[in-house]
Amino acid sequence: MQKITPVSANFSVSPQIGPEDMPAVVAAGFRSIISNRPDGEEPGQPDAATLARVAQSHGLIFEHLPVTNPDIAPTDARAMQAALARLPKPVLAFCRSGGRSTAMHAAALALGSDAAATYDVVIVGGGSAGIACAASLLKRQADLSIAIIEPSDVHYYQPGWTLVGAGVFQPRATRRAMAEVMPRKARWIRQAVRAFQPDSNSVTLADGTAIAYHALVVAPGLKLDWGAIPGLSETIGRNGVTSNYRYDLAPYTHELVRKMAQGRALFTQPPMPIKCAGAPQKAMYLSCHDWEQRGLLEGIEVEFHSAGPVLFGVADYVPALMTYIERYGIDFRPGSKLVGVDGDARIARFEQGGDGEKTVVERPFDMLHVVPPQVAPDFVAASPIADESGFVAVDPATLRHPIWPNLFALGDVIAASNAKTAAAARKQAPVVAVNVIAALDGKNPVAGYDGYGSCPLTVERGRIVLAEFGYGGKLLPSFPNWLLDGRKPTRLAWFLKDRMLPPIYWHGMLKGREWLAGPSPIGQTP
Domain span at residue 163? Predict the structure, then answer.
């Protein structure tokens, strides 16, 4: 390992490092690496792509900002400043000797704290909605300055967790490093947002830094409120209590299903809104199909406790789902809300009853699949941009805020009646992109969102009821009925979910490719 020279409390430099040096870099306490050396300066020099792969395998964030001499151009200084602002600290930078890295650091500091702190567009959230919107914006106007504020260093493909719970996908197939999915031309600020100041066109970060914008896009998703159910946090992940709504718990779902040979399995659904309203049922149907295939279903009592009054909110899909409720012998209990869990005793408590008198019923279980209540993130709910629900107020068609014309929102955080699904975000991202660009030009929104959402209801391994609908429950199928009737369980829908949707997500949606998702004028559909 080459000599490391500290420059400041959180920044050091060194001569060229190689893949073999990564363990030593980690051992020295560094969390990020910046390469300031262009590839190919001398024979045998390891290229940046190779170093990035090895660095990421050791849990390091790697950024390549090559410069050719110590006379640092303003654009390079701004890029260095942005990298130092967003990368996890401490940071190790290198070039051939360390000199250019030292010069880059000095040039970044010389810009001052206010330089590069105002962006054309600031996006809050690096989930599917935020990344897709950034990609769609850059696809249309590549010279936009965009900052994405996201504290997490991992990006998840959450729709895949249902299939992880069924043993179809491996967990690792549903996650990637955030650095891999972040659009290259966007600046990643790896912090959380503390507050919004829409009157002054700025947001405040957790460390107190103010970031200014010309347009703001809010897309941080929602909050899974595990603590809202007494006893759940203490037992989740053990005592037979699981949930496909968490990356680390979906494999436990599969483990419980495979080990269970008899007893009682409870599946729950909280009050709306929740992300992917069909996911609570998907876990249940796939579990039942597994038990059925192994000849165990008759010895297992299955109960579905839903806080809502109906099986599914769009009536056209209910007949197909009821066929599977009957086939699997599921005891469907509408109006039954999970209000407590005693994991050690394996007792679940449900509040039941209508608007009048409510009672609490205890149900013993051998397996309990829980879907937690879901609310707006605290920093959103407490902000001026939220409505009475705590979610961001938007016009349901344009996704623009009703008070601030340069503020837009999309994804699970919006206060609209659409289904909260990745498919909805995929349709919303181009709409917001088009309307943000219009706002930057001082114009009114031109693109409209029709409430589209998709919920592939996995009723058995190999068949899916593909629910596609918009505002008011209007059916919005992507394919003609002769090819794929979403009201019936089909193998083609399973093929889409299993084989097609993951690559469409990673290589299409997150890259600004808008297959079957292009924006339409307000009031029209494609």
Answer: 118-222+376-521
Catalytic residue among 95, 133, 276, 288: 276
d(Cα 229, Cα 350) in Å, to the nearest integer?
A: 10
Split at pLDDT 50, 70, 90, the class of 116 is very low
pLDDT digits (tens, 9 = 90+) for 286-306: 999 999 999 999 999 999 999
CATH of the domain at 362: 3.50.50.60
Domain for residue 160, yes or no? yes
How is residue 275 annotated by DSSP? B
Distances (CA, A) of 415 to 69, 272, 389, 408: 51, 12, 7, 12
| Confidence class for position 2, pLDDT limits 50, 70, 90 | confident
Average pLDDT, the chain: 93
Cβ–Cβ under 8 Å, residues 135 and 124: no
What's the longest Cα–Cα distance across the chain? 80
Please report whether residue 284 resides in a domain.
yes
Place of tokens 């700025």: 202
Characterize the bridge pairing of strands 374-375 and 223-224.
Answer: antiparallel
Spatial separation of the C-alpha atoms in residues 359 and 365, rounded to whole Å: 19
Share of the chain above pLDDT 90, in %: 85
Active-site residue, 455 included: yes
Whether residues 333 and 442 fall in one domain: no
The 3-state DSSP class for residue 113 equals coil
CATH number at 83 reads 3.90.190.10
146 and 211, same domain (yes or no):
yes
Q: CA-CA distance, 209 to 444, in Å (whole number)?
A: 31
Same domain flag for 440 and 475? yes
**pLDDT, position 525:** 55
Phi, psi of 17 (to 5 degrees): -110, 160
276 is catalytic: yes
- Exactly one of 95, 133, 288, 455 is catalytic; which is it? 455
Model-wide pTM > 0.90: no
